[in-house]
Write a structure and sequence with these properties.
This protein is an alpha+beta fold. It has 2 helices and 8 strands.
């Protein structure tokens, strides 16, 4: 699988996501990469991402898990040739379990794996670590959409 950021392969319409869009200058700029059979992202929180002094906000955590999980589903389906140019997997549901507070003062690492897929629906498991400590586990259920139809409001 490719060593360029997963997010760099997405259609232009998806490049504006607040969590991972490369074209959103005010966003979190999450970048995910394949590493063996999982995807990995390392992200450094800033002081304004806090919930309490020294603790990373749960909404920020949920956002980066969501983005990393959908990125994993999209990268997998693009790499195996199951997605057309204007199709993507988007979040259908997101489940987050906070195991312990996530410190704000050093990078967090996300590791995600495909749990199951049937082509239209893909389930991704994602863990968030602070150093060697697993702080959060998430599960992202994604569904395949035609981006043009999805954005046609």
């Amino acid at each position: 699988m490719s060593q360029e950021p997963i997010q760099d392969k997405w259609p232009e319409e998806a490049a504006f996501c607040w969590g991972c869009g490369q074209r959103n200058e005010h966003g979190l700029q999450l970048r995910s990469y394949w590493e063996d059979n999982e995807t990995v992202a390392t992200w450094m929180p800033k002081e304004h991402h806090l919930a309490f002094p020294g603790i990373l906000n749960g909404g920020i955590i949920s956002t980066i898990i969501d983005c990393h999980g959908t990125g994993t589903a999209n990268a997998y389906h693009h790499e195996v040739g199951e997605l057309e140019t204007h199709s993507m997997h988007v979040t259908a549901s997101l489940t987050i379990r906070f195991l312990k507070p996530t410190p704000l003062d050093h990078p967090v690492t996300l590791r995600a794996r495909i749990r199951e897929t049937d082509g239209r629906k893909t389930i991704v498991d994602c863990d968030l670590y602070a150093g060697d400590e697993k702080c959060v586990v998430g599960q992202i259920v994604t569904v395949k959409v035609d981006v043009r139809a999805f954005l046609d409001r």
